[in-house]
């Protein structure tokens, strides 16, 4: 593992990148103990605080874990899809909010990704996942449900659809579509949407999944995308009208 002292990049970031590369390449394996702070400082010819900052960066990414005691130290962590899921959502939310991604762009990506799961979900969805979707549809129909709770239920419904594909890699990749893009889109459209219309479309999706009819699942998602885009257009037009 090496760094370039002449580089303008922060030394702690370079060290973190070098260790990260060693983990990805298999040079450092899961549960392997990293050299001590003193050993790393000597290896990279930097101060211990610089090494400590690098290790903090790696720990924040769940790439390493620290243990105290005589047998403690920093160890290569075993990443899980579940553990990485929240990081994916946070990163995607920040990217969308900071880069002024248009509603149409986000909507196109969100439904294109979800539709990619439709056929697999129709084949593999479990009874529990279908029950979750039915429960969320029931929840969405309750009088007095707040907009925040409706949005959360909307996310849970689509999360169950995505997870129904039975593919953890897809679920991880779609985290941004379901739990990052969906809330942002709901924030824009909630003033114009009809809950009854959304509930009906959700019911169509659930019915198609229950029948294991991939074409109908896809068609229902296309309808939901079209409705969502129309809502955004209605909101935009209303904002443009003079008071």
UniProtKB/TrEMBL annotation:
Domain HTH gntR-type: 9-79
SUPFAM superfamilies assigned to the protein according to its UniProt record, in alphabetical order: GntR ligand-binding domain-like, Winged helix' DNA-binding domain
Source domain of life: Bacteria
Keyword Cytoplasm part of the UniProt annotation: no
Pfam families xrefs: FCD (PF07729), GntR (PF00392)
Transmembrane helix among keywords: no
Annotated Gene3D superfamilies: GntR ligand-binding domain-like (1.20.120.530), Winged helix-like DNA-binding domain superfamily/Winged helix DNA-binding domain (1.10.10.10)
UniProt keyword annotations, A-Z: DNA-binding, Transcription, Transcription regulation
A molecular-function term among this protein's GO annotations: DNA-binding transcription factor activity
PANTHER family the UniProt entry points to: GLUCONATE OPERON TRANSCRIPTIONAL REPRESSOR (PTHR43537:SF24), TRANSCRIPTIONAL REGULATOR, GNTR FAMILY (PTHR43537)
Protein name, per record: GntR family transcriptional regulator
Protein source organism: Ruegeria conchae
Organism classification: Bacteria, Pseudomonadati, Pseudomonadota, Alphaproteobacteria, Rhodobacterales
